[in-house]
Amino acid sequence: CSSDLAARLGAALCRSGGGAVSRAMSAALPAAARRAPVLYVEDHPVNVQLMKALFERLPGESLMVAGSVAEGLAAMRRHEGPCALLLLDIGLPDGRGNELLQHLRLLPGCAATRAVAVTAERGFDFAGTGFDEIWEKPLDLPRVLERLRLLLAARAPAAPHDLRRQGGALA
User: Fold this and answer.
1) Which of 43, 56, 122 is nearest to 87 (CA)?
2) 72-98 confidence digits (pLDDT tens)
3) Which of 10, 23, 68, 171 has the fewest CB atoms within 10 Å, measured from its CB?
4) What's the pTM value of the predicted model, to 2 decimals?
């Protein structure tokens, strides 16, 4: 991916408000019909675009995007109600996703929400961090879409799952 493409995608995200479309669609639904959104905290514009593309294949689901620890906390403080799933990058410009998760767990609607570490950090040990799963970058998009469908359909705790590459194969 060229830096020019990343810059254009980043500019498009800034112009779009990073989720204004899903918020507008969600606001148009009656309160009883709205599903809790997914919070995705990711600072890389290309990764955000990829996740948005996956969510286009998940009718009825909405994605709230934040680019930093501070933005993620602010988004959840503004949001009224629970969150369906937390997708948190580990290496963020102003902190770490595992530290963000500790803060999110203290907010209403986040205490028991399933959380996924989405990271390029090889060997990140998510045991004891509060994450239920780890998805290693670069993401295997078909498998991530499958996991999203399962996690969002269940909307309840399931067995931990590991989407890391091991010896060239997926775990």
Assistant:
1) 43
2) 999 999 997 899 999 999 999 999 999
3) 171
4) 0.74
